[in-house]
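Review box. Two proteins, two foldings.
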Amino acid sequence: MRRLFVSDCEGPISKNDNAFEVTKNFIPQGDKLFTIISKYDDVRADILKIPGYDAGSTLKLIVPFLKAFDVTERDIEKYSSDNLFLITDSKVSLEYIRKTSNAFIVSTSYEQYIKVLCESLDFPFENTYCTNLSIDKYSITDKEKKGLRKIANELSELPQIIIPSKAKSLDDFSKESQNVIKRLDSIFWQEISNSDISRFFSDVIPIGGYQKGEAIKDVARKLNNSINNVIYFGDSITDLEAFNLVKKSGGLTVSFNGNSYAVKNADVAVLSNSNLVIAIINNLFCNYGTKTTIRLLKDWSIKTLNKVDLNDDLLSLFLNKYKEDLPIVKILTSKNTNLLIEESNRFRRSLRGEAIGSLG
């Protein structure tokens, strides 16, 4: 039975955070607006663990503001096409992966971006799960538009939320951050949710958190396969449910240039400017399964790669690229996790930029 390759998009395959970039481009001070909502999203999903709230809901919460600034589906698609930045070797890596695995992309990103990405990579869009955004179907009054623009301006001027490293409740936050979180609570769950604009929230279902886990189950069910045959690549807080599901089921989870959320929940941490290493690890998983792949990756070296069963052309391409300095591949342990979080965060920011690299 063929193994199942499942990957997040932004991080393992592309350098973009498309929703952040779209918001920054079309909304005044949109980078600040998106960042504060993203941090708020992390707080609700990871610290407060609000029942029924999924990581990645930023892509829902930001929609009313996109509409208020007259952003259309065509705008998002064109911007995505003009500003697609792939991780080096993404296309050739996916070509090798699809030779041995049933390959799927599960992404929180808007479908307009994923369609553009699939066209660029010759990857079947029908093998993707992403956030449906039909923003053109909504109408908005001038009064609503004016009110949302005013709120957007207010949010962009608020101090950014600082999440303490060991926070477990709101009491662990500074008074300033607590006040910002309370203001965001009021805006989203009272002012907007109690107005007609709340229709944006009910219609947009981001594919993050719980939804990513459900997508993996759907893939396995459709192909009459088992989740212990899944290898999952992710990089952020939206991948935690997928990581937990795959690990619990006996599959393999890999953080690719991940942030702290991804690294501390994965089996393997990878730091690389090319995702050819993804194809190599996937090839090992296809041939050996989870336990043996982990054992082999503990001795990650050219010597190990030369003595195992790998696609000859893929291995040659990989070793010609890296010569003696292989990308960092580490099995996560209680002793090395904190250090790898620091290293991965630094590498992530250097590769994708400080703003995107610092998002949850």
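Next protein.
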Amino acid sequence: MRQEYEIHLEPLLSVPVERELPLRQRLWQQGWLRKGLILIVLAILWEAVARYQNNDLLLPSFLQTFAALYDGLLSGELLSKVSISLVVLLKGYLIGIVLAFALTTLAVSTQLGQDLLSTLTSMFNPLPAIALLPLALLWFGLGQNSLIFVLVHSVLWALALNTYSGFLGVSETLRMAGRNYGLKGMRFVLFILIPAALPSILAGLKIGWAFAWRTLIAAELVFGATSGKGGLGWYIFQNRNELYTDKVFAGLAVVILIGLLVENLVFDTFERLTVKRWGMQR
């Protein structure tokens, strides 16, 4: 047998060590800073256009809108409207998620479920959720149930399509590994299909959230208050009738800010802790 030996290497001092990046480049690599600069530039352009037009009724300036937003938050009016809208949104969103996963689980388990999902998505996915609002008002009346109905419709089909596409994209190797472990039915979906198709599922959750959020605001703009309480869409509609354009823009700014917060804090954090950490997504 060959005798073992160890070679001691001298430290390599001739190659220069790379210095740390300058502070400017390190800051530029931060995504939140780049996005913040974009928002600042848009705010400056908004202020310049508003001052050039000089008509507060048509286009209030950024500073006027910020003042209306600050007053609305300080008085608690905007926060109460936001809480009303978010409670309704979460109810419809969660019900849509449950129904979407039930439908896709049935589709990957049986041929009849696959045909059912294909038929229903072909029928209802092109149908705008807001178009079902008159029927919802007839069936459920003026209340949260009507809003929840249209929210479920806006979430269900987009999430079901993305989830089913992700399930179909799972490699046969992972499927065989799950079958070798004796996984069947719901356990096979939970432990094999969902983790492997998580990027597609997250994309569907994002699309469903965006559809649900804008559908809710549009529905509140159409028939206003629910059960005597108006949400954020009703706040915008009411101030438009009273010609408080700065408050209208403040309400729209809150809609945008909530979308940014959910996208960057909730979904991006979940992606970073799951699919990016697992190497499934760049």
